[in-house]
Amino acid sequence: MSASFASALSAARDAAATQHYPQGTLYVVATPIGNLADITLRALHVLQLADVIACEDTRHTQSLLRAYGIDKSGAQLLAVHQHNEAEAAGNVVDRLRQGLRVAYVSDAGTPGVSDPGARLASAVAAAGLRCLPLPGASSVTTALSVAGAVAHGPDAGGFLFAGFLPTRGAERTAAVQRLGDEPRCVVLLEAPHRIEELARALAVLGERPVTLARELTKQFEEISTHPAQALSAWLDGNPQRARGEFVVLLHPLPPAAADDDAQGRRVLQLLLPELPLKTAVRIAADITGNARNALYPLALELKREMDEDEDADGAADEGGDASHSR
């Protein structure tokens, strides 16, 4: 532990110790995403106070605690990760019922968003016990805060968090096509060994601006915005650019593009009940001027919705007939 964190622990006690920290409570604690100094004073105090610390990786969390000068035995650390979260949640609930304070941390950032923690929080709430959030670092909000990618106004709609896209080629391509029609800012996460594959997949979005934010809060942090079709060239320009964890932001569609999407949807809704899908797409492209490859995934989505509605109506009719026969 450095001397600076020794003073931080003292400051944490002074700032946070007068607050009430109920027993039998799960404390969901955000931890730094790279820079150790981004820990909050309240997080430091709760990590000292906790009887048990549930964590995504016990070795990683033990190293983090030691960096801050917090001493916890191995018996006080409980592994709760994506492979055992449902089972481990029961263990946490048992300890909370004993009146223990349990803190949960993921490897970095705010738990339960992309990292594990959501199932644990749900299980604790279902048991009638309390979850108390301690806000802090998040790669999602960190990237959003500097990218200028969230539109404002009464009709802006905020942003969509999509997380990691499918790893299989066909599924990833289909996901990108769907997101290409999303008018809001879209937030993606990606690992370094797949960022070049994602960049190639996003190239179909053409001129749509995309911000790549890598190694956030770390020494080699880099935040850069380019047209989607130029991402691969930018990554290829320097091998270092493909290193580190990535937050990828698809900027909002221009208002005209969003209007075009709405027009295409309206035209397809009229044509699909009367025509084969490919014919409906071709005619919709002629009417609206939109590209067929942009209308096709929208047509598939609408067709699925129409088929589901028909199936639901058929089931309701059968149920009504059966009730009448009785």
Reported by name, the CATH topology of the largest domain is: Cobalt-precorrin-4 Transmethylase, domain 1
Structural class label: alpha/beta
| Overall body shape | globular
Distance between the termini: 77 Å
Number of continuous helical runs: 12
* Low-confidence runs of at least 5 consecutive residues: 322-326
CATH class of the largest domain: Alpha Beta
Helix content: 40-55%
Order of helices and strands: HEHEHEHEHEHEHEHEEHEHHH
CATH architecture of the largest domain: 3-Layer(aba) Sandwich
Instruction: Describe the sheet with the most strands.
Output: 5 strands, parallel
Organism: Paracidovorax wautersii
Pfam family, one: RsmI_C
Family: Belongs to the methyltransferase superfamily. RsmI family.
Domain Tetrapyrrole methylase: 25-229
Q: Could you explain how this protein is built, in words?
A:
The protein is α/β, with parallel strands linked by helices. It folds into 3 domains: 5-137, 3-Layer(aba) Sandwich (Cobalt-precorrin-4 Transmethylase, domain 1); 140-250, Methyltransferase, Cobalt-precorrin-4 Transmethylase, Domain 2 (2-Layer Sandwich), CATH 3.30.950; 260-310. Helices cover 47% and strands 15% of the residues. The protein has helices at 3-16, 41-49, 58-68, 85-97, 118-126, 139-147, 169-180, 195-202, 231-236, 255-271, 277-288, 292-325, and strands spanning 25-29, 52-55, 77-79, 102-105, 130-134, 159-163, 185-190, 209-214, 222-227, 246-250. The strands form 2 sheets. It has a 5-stranded parallel sheet with strand order 3-2-4-1-5, with helices on both faces. Strand 8 (209-214) and strand 9 form a beta hairpin. The radius of gyration is 25 Å and the shape is globular. The termini are far apart.
